Amino acid sequence: MTSLAERVEPLLLCVPYAPGLDDRLPDAQVVAARPSGPSTRPGRPYALFGHGPGAPAALELARSLRDSPPSTLVVSGCPAPPPPDDQLDCRLVVLAELTEPSDLEAAERWRSHTQGSFAVRPVPAGIDGLADALAAELAVVAERTAAT
Predict the structure, then answer these.
(1) 10-20: pLDDT as tens digits
(2) Beta 46-51 vs 29-32: how paired, if at all?
(3) Can you give the CATH number for the domain in which 69 is found?
């Protein structure tokens, strides 16, 4: 079986950079996103990830990258900002600990930020659960890219 990196080598841009994720996601190139945007090959798929205060920052970065948008925006650990005037045109995934009934409702508020597909993925507490969920989302980016 070939690894994810051998098939696509997806790029995960973290806002801000998340130390330790690169050790837990060996099949992806994990880098810090720059305010000027990603330095990727044209057409190369990438995902933006923001956790906590980085989630709204990743959202704003994705909005600013209209010429080279991410294929997927992944957010976690932060309530959704107020609904936008304009929506993203990319897949948006919320990784959420769903321990209370209100947690799903809070995660669903992110839906207003995209006209693309939307999903809430439950994750267990801790960095390992988050890393596993990110790896799964990068696999989706890779599979969609391989299919095109």
Answers:
(1) 455 555 545 55
(2) unpaired
(3) 3.40.50.1820
